[in-house]
Write a structure and sequence with these properties.
Elements (H helix, E strand, L loop, with lengths): L10 E9 L4 E8 L5 E7 L6 E3 L5 E3 L2 H11 L7 H17 L4 E3 H15 L1 H11 L5 H33 L1
Parallel strand pairs: 4-6
Antiparallel strand pairs: 1-2, 2-3, 4-5
């Protein structure tokens, strides 16, 4: 680290502590050449992930946009903010861990819907109605029928699993 005052490249760290919610390390340094003190900040360099929108434009991934969309779909629903924050954190982690420099808005929308479906079906349908841009009531009903079939399949699997347990207990 080059000293601001004498351009010496030798310095020693006097104090080091985390700052900015543990996203930054603040270091107090002392120049070996002139003895003056200065502060440096060390942060992780984040390479931005670009979102490719449906019209072909690109913009930086913004977790706040994801959060706002989820909040809107969960309006007047019994979904705690902690659950919403968890979904946003999970989606953000998945986006950054993909190691891709670009992701489509469609992929992000699918991630949101996958999580909303598990949390609240009404919020899921609200989000899907905007995301999938249902043109008419029949496309909306088709989505609801798919959900009902999936729910019936899960119920059947649950009953079959319970029946298997009862047979073992006898």
């Amino acid at each position: 680290m080059k000293c601001l005052y004498c351009d010496c490249t030798e310095s020693k760290v006097i104090d080091s502590r985390s700052a900015d919610d543990d996203r930054t390390i603040r270091r107090r340094r002392e120049c070996v050449g002139c003895g003056r003190r200065f502060t440096t900040y060390e942060t992780i360099e984040v390479t931005p992930v670009l979102v490719v929108k449906n019209n072909g434009t690109r913009q930086a991934f913004n977790a706040e946009k994801v959060r706002n969309g989820i909040i809107k779909s969960c309006e007047k629903r019994p979904v705690p903010m902690a659950v919403i924050d968890g979904m946003v954190a999970d989606i953000s982690k998945q986006v950054y861990n993909s190691m891709e420099s670009e992701i489509t808005s469609k992929q992000i929308g699918e991630m949101v819907m996958e999580r909303l479906k598990k949390v609240d079906e009404v919020a899921y349908v609200r989000y899907a109605s905007v995301y999938r841009s249902f043109k008419d009531i029949s496309s909306f009903l088709a989505e609801l029928k798919d959900m009902m079939k999936e729910r019936e399949g899960e119920a059947r699997r649950g009953r079959a699993k319970d029946a298997g347990k009862e047979g073992k207990n006898e």
